[in-house]
């Protein structure tokens, strides 16, 4: 089975995206299609291909073939070490991580995969930043590539708060396949949203 071709999606509103949105506005009388909230920023042609795969039941097979195993980072301590290792390689001088943990309160269905928080702590005349990263608990049982993509995204927020061009360049510096992995994660979420069973355990 051939992989689905994907665009290099940066989160920016491109001219093509504007055209796609205009095309949607002219199809009010078209038959109701399978909603793809996690892929709304991608080209309509790619969304159509995804719908075909979901309806045909091919999505789970493709994902398992590409990502046959789940990672082994199951505890908060292991997750802290995992994230800190990435930070030590790419963001050595970006401050200390105070906490890294899986979080069952993060609602993936509201389009949040992880969360970075920054608090300023005063120490005398100095102010230190206190960084925390929380990862949606569902990714405790997922491929390593998925976990890494989400961790890289949250780590990038230590340096850059906005989802701008510089932010995505930093994500790609830490993980060259960032955009492909982001699509694959969104593809998996679309599969689950359509009633698919979790592929690597969990519920």
From TrEMBL:
<dbReference type="Pfam" id="PF01863">
    <property type="entry name" value="YgjP-like"/>
</dbReference>
<dbReference type="InterPro" id="IPR053136">
    <property type="entry name" value="UTP_pyrophosphatase-like"/>
</dbReference>
<feature type="domain" description="YgjP-like metallopeptidase">
    <location>
        <begin position="13"/>
        <end position="181"/>
    </location>
</feature>
<dbReference type="InterPro" id="IPR002725">
    <property type="entry name" value="YgjP-like_metallopeptidase"/>
</dbReference>
<protein>
    <submittedName>
        <fullName>M48 family metallopeptidase</fullName>
    </submittedName>
</protein>
